[in-house]
Structure formats: structure tokens, C-alpha cells
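::Amino acid chain::
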Amino acid sequence: MGIAAVGQLLIFFLSGSVALLADLIHNFGDALTAVPLGIAFFLRSAIGEKFAGLAVVLAIFVSACVALYETILRFIHLQQLTHLWILAGAGVIGFIGNEIAAQVRLRAGKRLASAAMTADGNHARIDGFVSLGVIASAIVVGLGLPIADPIIGLVITLVILKISWDSWRTVRSAKIDIQHVDGSGQGA
């Protein structure tokens, strides 16, 4: 995810798309969610996994807030987008990066019986489809409607907020099963 987000960042500097900015902010946050999850699994801590799940939810929510702020600014100060073909390519990069992340995280979540990892995997899967919104932005702006970029940025932001809520519900309702975390049944 980090590699995809860096690629999108470079394209953002060329295009100026707020829809892409919303997607890449979220993708950077998504890449960073691997850190608390990795630490929790390395330490084999059930409580650490629960806190890691909460960190994932917080990262998703913060990325939505930043994306919302930037989208509102773009409504106020509408900009003409450039490099629309490259912008569409950024959407493809985001989709592929998120789908790879989703596959890895969902398999790990199932293997480890981890609600936090499963929530993160489902979130990455949805993010892939959110990245396709960047392609839609490039197409609609190319057809002569520059207001489409902040509108699509807003839609992406609303989807990220929905992901935050769904992830919160998954992590909040997860039961901590010590046996699945450290294999001994005696806790971490």
C-alpha cells in the first residue's frame, strides 16, 4: 500500500486532483495501519491486537477528516486539473495496491482468527473500489465538468467515513480469544 500511495502522491503533484488526494491520504493511512497490527502479532498480545484494531479505526477516521478538509477547500477554490490520463492511472494504481493488501490481510485475518486484521482487509477491499473514483474524476473532468473532482472527493470521503464506522463495529464487537493469539491458551 505504501508503494501505491507514493505513486499516487507523485501523480497528485502533476494533476492537483482532490479526489486523488482523498484516496492517497487514505492509502497512506492504510499503509501505516500495518505497524500497530504487526507489533501486536509480534508480541502475541490479544489486548495489543484489540488496541491495534482501534488504531486502525482511528487512522481511517483521521484520513477521512483530512480528506474532508481538503475537499471543502477545493469546493471553495476550484482548480483546473491537468494530466488526466496520468490521473486515471493513479486510480488504477490505488485499485491494484488495495486489492493486493486486501488479499494479504484477509488471508492473515482468517488464519490468525483476527478481527482487527479482517476489518483491515475488508477496508482495503472497499478502498480499491474507492480508488476507481479517481478514474471517474478524470473522465468526468475530461468531459468538461471540473466540479466533478471535489464532488467525487466528497463521495470518497463519505465512503471512508462509512468504512470507519464499519471497522469500529467489527473491532468493538470482537471477542479476544487468547488461544488464537499465542497458541497456548494461557495468555500473552
Summary: The chain has eight helices and no strands.
